[in-house]
Write a structure and sequence with these properties.
Blueprint lengths: L16 E7 L11 H13 L4 E6 L3 H14 L5 E13 L2 E4 L9 H6 L2 E2 H10 L4 E10 L23 E6 L16 H10 L6 H15 L7 E5 L27 H13 L5 H10 L6 H14 L29 H6 L19 H14 L4 H13 L3 H13 L3 H12 L8 H13 L3 H13 L7 H13 L3 H13 L12 H13 L3 H12 L8 H13 L4 H12 L7 H13 L3 H13 L7 H14 L5 H13 L4 H18 L2
Parallel strand pairs: 1-2, 1-3, 3-6, 6-7
Antiparallel strand pairs: 3-4, 4-5, 7-8
Helix pairs in contact: 1-5, 5-6, 6-27, 7-11, 8-9, 8-11, 11-12, 12-13, 13-14, 14-15, 15-16, 16-17, 17-18, 18-19, 19-20, 20-21, 21-22, 22-23, 23-24, 24-25, 24-26, 25-26, 25-27
């Protein structure tokens, strides 16, 4: 255990800020991988946000209580108080209990008696003088301590506070389980530290962005939420006015890549509270003009105790004395572990999804790797990806180009997408197609699928479904799930009005959907369920159709719960069940599917399974219009038509809009 306090050099904060951060992972049963990394990452970003921060790791029951009492006693009256916990937790009787590392499997009563009651922690913070409380629980991981008993619920229970201004952030929905993650941090904490680190963001905007990132990048399997009773605006990091010098794509060449890496690395760490960041920089760039400052900062942090230890990367770790010189363990870098691209066919780790990459760790790690191996296309691509995630598109393009020049297909695909998505430039399908073709020639299946889409939609090229089929089939034959699902859709649909495409063949569609489903594609699972529930294969197979659609819904597909909801609402294939329909529509809407939000509005309008309420219907129709898919204008049109059909006055419409805007601010689009 060790304590950390904020540097006096930080900018003054109007209200004093104090944080207690706890990471528990060294359990005798059910040991976890990332909570200590999560706690250290959170501490580093809170220190830079002006919090006097106390970090504790792997607390026993006695230590937990002692640390909590000591911290609360140290917080002055009227301060902002933040509590963060990562580790195991359980719920019982609607209350949440945080587990110390010396907990042992046993009866529920014993487990709870040795654990910290989260609601009591909130009460004690406010009773101790905290005026504005922030409580963050990344503690919903499934636990092995009380399995098989109905006394302990899955995940955590929802909770609110009626004392003081309080915001409670949960890693996932009540009753659901969060994940430890494939990178050095959990998905929730990885997203949270990235958002806290952005200057000028109000606290509600921070948690909204976190929710959106985690929901999207865990494919809907984890959905954070907050409970907030706050009136004030609160910003973790005030704007500094510092403008980062941008590097033009043309400046990033093979001859000067090391100079660029040095600049990027120093810019990323110069306000770090991790001494290892500065020592690593000095090791790799001993002749840098920033070396003296780096050494001084490392010494100052270590001598004053105002430092955070670096993260431990357990993934793919093999002790040096057991590494095979010709093996994978000899070439994996920290950059690969922290910033590997899951869509890269040449990746050498699992990779970390786009919105969950720990940016504070990723850029220095990839800079260090490139300092050792500046021509490595994989590392150049990963550096480009980091800069792309940060919205630094010109710099990202420069590194992607270098990687692409080395024949790295994933970098070429990302270059193409920069132009398709108009990232930092005008949309340019012609240039994108050129990059996709180069990647496709290197065997990249994602690129081949993207080219098929361009021919299917007529983007730059003349619309040609025959040509699209060739590209989709090429990618599908090599096992690309998205291509398999898309090709199956074409077999289900049949030829277009010009005779292009493939002959309608539902049996072939089923075969392709099954292959894609086995590879984890949830759209294929949903489509397989839909085809079994239809009469396309003969008599509907209701049991099989519901099973496949349920699998898709359980794995986070947003269309499947909507389709299931309609089935239970309409009562044609199964007995009508409005309560189940509403729950499924809410699940789909929560995953960002606007038609599900419209369906909820209709249930309130018609009183199906709920009390009729035009006000609730108006709220959902308005929210659907505001969150509709911009590529599908009919969604917004239908929502607005339904809203107009309610016949509400302007005051009632204004209330619905205000509620929808508040919901979006808390939860994202």
């Amino acid at each position: 255990m060790f304590g950390i306090w904020a540097l006096a050099a930080l900018p003054a904060i109007a209200q004093e800020r104090y944080a207690l951060v706890i990471g528990n992972e060294a359990y005798s049963v059910g040991a976890l991988r990332n909570p200590v990394n999560d706690a250290r990452s959170m501490t580093a970003v809170l220190l830079q946000s002006g919090f006097e921060t106390t970090l504790r790791e792997n607390l026993t029951a006695a230590e937990f209580e002692a640390v909590l009492a000591e911290f609360i006693a140290s917080v002055p009256e009227g301060a902002v108080g933040l509590f963060y916990y990562a580790g195991h937790a359980v719920q019982s009787g609607g209350r949440n209990f945080l587990l110390p590392v010396d907990i042992q499997p046993g009866a529920a009563e014993t487990i709870l008696g040795q654990s910290a009651d989260a609601a009591q922690i909130i009460e004690r913070f406010h009773a101790g003088g905290v005026e504005f409380g922030i409580f963050i629980l990344d503690a919903c991981r499934d636990n092995p301590f009380v399995a098989g008993t109905g006394e302990i619920g899955r995940g955590l229970a929802s909770m609110e506070s009626d004392v003081g201004e309080t915001l409670i952030g949960f890693a996932t929905q009540a009753g659901e389980v969060a994940y430890d993650g494939t990178g050095p941090n959990s998905p929730y904490t990885g997203a949270l530290i990235n958002e806290i680190d952005k200057e000028g963001k109000d606290i509600l905007d921070v948690f909204r962005s976190v929710r959106r990132s985690v929901r999207i990048w865990t494919d809907g399997r984890q959905r954070p939420f907050i409970s907030a009773s706050i009136e004030r605006e609160f910003t973790f990091r005030e704007p500094t006015g510092r403008v980062r010098a941008q590097v033009a794509p043309g400046e990033i060449t093979a001859d000067n890549v090391l100079k660029i890496v040095e600049r990027l690395w120093w810019d990323a760490i110069r306000d770090s509270r991790v001494p290892e960041d500065f020592r690593a920089f000095v090791t790799h760039f001993p002749n840098s003009t920033n070396v003296a400052q780096a050494r001084n900062l490392a010494v100052e942090l270590e001598e004053t105790g105002q430092a955070v230890r670096g993260l431990t990367l357990a993934q793919f770790a093999v002790p040096e004395d057991r590494r095979a010189p010709q093996g994978l363990s000899a070439v994996i870098t920290d950059c690969d572990i922290v910033a590997g691209d899951p869509d890269d066919p040449r990746r050498i780790t699992d990779g970390v999804p786009w919105g969950l990459v720990n940016m504070r760790r990723a850029l220095p790690d990839c800079a260090a790797a490139l300092a050792e191996d500046p021509t490595n296309p994989r590392l150049l691509h990963q550096m480009g990806r980091i800069l792309d995630i940060q919205g630094r598109y010109g710099e990202a393009e420069g590194f992607y180009r270098l990687a692409g020049a080395g024949g790295y297909s994933a970098a070429l695909v990302n270059l193409g997408f920069l132009h398709v998505a108009a990232k930092g430039r005008e949309r340019d399908y012609e240039t994108a197609l050129g990059y996709y073709r180069r990647a496709a020639d290197l065997g990249n299946l994602r690129a081949r699928t993207n080219i098929g889409e361009m021919f299917e939609r007529g983007w730059f090229v003349e619309k040609n479904l025959d040509e699209a089929v060739l590209w989709y089939r090429l990618a599908a034959q090599n096992g690309w799930p998205n291509a398999l699902d898309t090709l199956a859709n074409l077999y289900r649909r049949g030829r277009d009005d010009q005779g292009r495409g493939v002959e309608r063949d539902p049996e072939e569609a089923v075969r392709l959907y099954k292959v894609a489903s086995e590879l984890g594609n949830t759209n294929a699972m949903n489509n397989l369920g839909r085809i079994y529930l239809s009469d396309e294969l003969g008599a509907p197979d209701i049991a099989r159709g519901l099973d496949w659609m349920s699998r898709a819904a359980e794995r986070g597909n947003r269309f499947a719960p909507f389709n299931l909801g309609r089935i239970y609402r309409d009562g044609k294939l199964v007995e009508r069940d409005n309560a189940t329909a509403l729950r499924l529509f809410e699940r789909s809407a929560d995953l960002g599917f606007a038609p599900a939000r419209i369906a909820i509005g209709r249930m309130y309008e018609n009183g199906q399974g709920v009390e009729p309420s035009k006000a609730e219907a108006a709220f959902h129709f308005t929210l659907a219009a505001m969150t509709a898919d911009s590529k599908r204008p009919r969604q917004e049109e239908e929502a607005r038509e339904r809203l107009a059909g309610l016949g509400l006055n302007q005051a009632e419409l204004d209330i619905a809009r205000q509620r929808a805007e508040t919901w979006i601010r808390l939860n994202g689009g």
